[in-house]
Design a protein that fits this description.
Length: 332
């Protein structure tokens, strides 16, 4: 039986036959988004074998950079796994460029505004010793994040006081860590009424150096001041909301100040996570900030039993990359 053009394309991509790939793409009408019997695309085969020239050809022909195999791996994951740097760089750049374009499209599409977290804010949430859950058994925050929150607090407090802002209280893990650095003023924005009520019951409203601002950050932005350190960790929002917050950083973050955020971007796929880390670094760079990512091993914090009763594992990677973003020390 004669093989389909797509099967021949997968074979050529796997073996490194660039001329055959070009021929099949240009004149054979082969579908570059085809999945073979193993659930792999031509791009995945080329990435696993490290054939950079073929990857370039397939991407230019419209091969989807973010297609996933049955084991939830993308072409970029295969390139990473087999240490094919040239292949990885091509796929990383393709992912960043695609997401930049997609982000622009989304901003145009949503220019009239939206309320992505409205449903969450109207739901009841449940508190336990080791997790905060929404009504759909999805974790809002969990105790395993405590070492991460302590590292974030250390980064934005720079080892001392100052005026610190945290957007999103959750279980209060980062705020408890911030308090250990004795900030002169510690402002907290929290939007969920249940969480806000628990904050008051726990005595946060009585702390002399704490100012609680109840509401969505988008609605209370005019009440915010200028800060030495800022942390951002909201629930029920998406990358676009994080990006929107970043547009306010020039007014919110003092020159020389430190900004960080919970880096849960695509926490279930290693390559997608890298793409979004690079994307946010690029976009912050365009605003005049330098960003570094500090690797923190988290595998030992996440035995399987941690996720018991949780509907969705929002973090599945062995390493957490803590972002540290710094404004220029000289005023513009």
């Amino acid at each position: 039986m004669e093989k389909k053009a797509e099967e021949l394309l997968c074979e050529a991509a796997r073996s490194g036959d660039c001329d055959k790939v070009v021929e099949l793409v240009e004149s054979g009408g082969a579908d570059v988004s085809y999945f073979d019997e193993h659930g792999l695309t031509p791009l995945m085969h080329a990435a696993r074998a490290g054939h950079a020239a073929i990857i370039k050809t397939l991407l230019e022909a419209g091969a989807p950079w973010n297609a996933l195999s049955p084991s939830n791996l993308s072409a970029g994951d295969f390139a990473m796994e087999h240490s094919h740097q040239d292949a990885f760089d091509l796929l990383l750049n393709a992912g960043i460029q695609a997401e930049l374009v997609l982000g622009t499209i989304e901003r145009v599409k949503n220019k009239d505004g939206r309320d992505v977290d409205g449903d969450y804010l109207e739901e009841r949430v449940s508190f336990s010793e080791d997790k905060l859950m929404d009504s759909n058994s999805k974790a809002i925050m969990m105790a395993w994040e405590k070492p991460l929150m302590e590292a974030h607090a250390k980064a934005i407090c720079c080892g001392g006081g100052g005026h610190i802002l945290n957007v999103g209280f959750g279980m209060g893990l980062v705020d408890m860590a911030i308090q250990q650095y004795g900030p002169v003023k510690h402002s907290i924005v929290e939007a969920h009424p249940d969480v806000y009520e628990r904050m008051l019951q726990s005595g946060w409203g009585e702390k002399e150096n704490v100012k609680i601002i109840f509401g969505r950050w988008q609605d209370v932005i005019s009440q915010l001041e200028s800060y030495d350190g800022i942390f951002f960790d909201t629930y029920g929002e998406y990358y676009e909301d994080l990006r929107d917050f970043h547009q306010h950083l020039p007014k919110l973050l003092k020159p020389g100040g430190i900004y960080s955020f919970f880096n849960g971007l695509c926490g279930g796929n290693a390559f997608f996570h890298v793409v979004y880390c690079q994307l946010v670094s690029l976009e912050l760079g365009n605003l005049g900030y330098s960003t570094q990512f500090i690797p923190l091993p988290v595998k030992d914090c996440l035995p399987e039993e941690v996720w018991e009763g949780v509907k969705h594992k929002y973090w599945q990677l062995d390493t957490y990359y803590l972002p540290v973003c710094q404004a220029g020390s000289d005023s513009e």
